[in-house]
Specification:
Order of helices and strands: EHEHEE
Shape: globular
Number of strands: 4
Strand content: 35-45%
Distance between the termini: 23 Å
Structural class: alpha+beta
């Protein structure tokens, strides 16, 4: 299942904070697709995924916006 989060128009750190909240409500292995316009979003999501263990699947730049896909990590056992 894929969830879409529209974070366009939001600046750092709001896209990552909203993504973190959305991921908490998702099951392990599900994908969150974030739509962002903040130029800092790609680096922010790289750092976020590195710190949390979520998997950064893709970052695409389309028409001045970013489409960022993150797969939720399995819960720690």
């Amino acid at each position: 299942m894929t969830t879409i989060l529209d974070a366009r128009g939001l600046n750092c750190p709001l896209p990552v904070l909203k993504a973190n909240k959305a991921l908490k409500a998702m099951a392990a292995g599900e994908t969150l697709t974030v739509l962002a316009s903040d130029p800092a979003a790609p680096k922010d999501f790289e750092a976020f995924c590195s710190a949390t263990g979520h998997r950064l699947i893709a970052i695409e730049h389309r028409d001045g916006e970013f489409v960022i896909a993150v797969r939720k990590a399995a819960a720690a056992s």
